[in-house]
Amino acid sequence: MARPTRVDPYLAELLAAPRGLEVEPLRERLTVASYNVHRWAGVRGGRAYDPEKASLVVSEVGADVLALQEVLRPVDGADPLADLARSLGFHLAFVVTRIHRRGELGNAVLSRWPLSGAHAINLSFGPLERRAALAVRVGGSARNVQVAATHLALVDRTRSRQVRALLDHPQLAGGPTVLLGDMNAWRPTKASRQLDDHFRERHHNASWPPSYPSVRPVLALDRLYARGMRVLSLETHTSDAARRGSDHLPIVARLELEDAQADTADGI
Length: 268
Description:
Blueprint: E1 10-15, E2 29-36, H1 51-61, E3 65-74, H2 80-88, E4 91-100, E5 103-111, E6 115-122, E7 132-139, E8 144-151, H3 156-168, E9 177-182, H4 190-199, E10 222-227, E11 229-236, H5 240-245, E12 251-257, H6 258-265
Parallel strand pairs: 2-3, 8-9
Antiparallel strand pairs: 1-4, 2-12, 3-5, 4-5, 6-7, 7-8, 9-10, 11-12
Helix pairs in contact: 3-4
């Protein structure tokens, strides 16, 4: 069996939604979700391959912007990620973290609104784990949100370095920002405290909805942090399909841009 190939993360895909669809401006309130699709292998993993299961869960969630982790684009056959984007009528960006024996493996963002300024951020600080983040700008020139989707390391020390690199990255330096993904935050660590101190939202581990394992979630591995936006709600999406689609449940957040709150207060 061939081993996975070690590569630096790279932006592999940036696709616009199908032509003919009406492009609406970014709304004041939006729904954002994060979902580890487990290489389209369902809840059991291994050699299983059934993209329809996780795709059904995505359609249930009904988010405006979705961050997907452990996305597999197979060497042979149709690309489930592109098929999913087309079925939703969404824009798509995909960053490859490593070459799996069955294809490219990485992080993706699907968005109702156009994407611009997509960047791959290399977070591979440990000798074993290849990790990355995908940073994209969602929306147009009048109103936009920076979204960073990631899947952090299992090792605490490496994860702390990854968080620091993300917080210091110029793509995430200003404006409304959402950082989300599989943080592997199974217990309070220096990395989680760094995020809490920086974003000052949902500071305590107990306030995070559990998302893993999907059949009986007890660990809050999947998280969302926002700056310049108010988190109106954050919960796991639970359904029969979600329990079968992956070993993680999706997390779903309703967000409101802070400038929208100011406009309302000023009577604009």
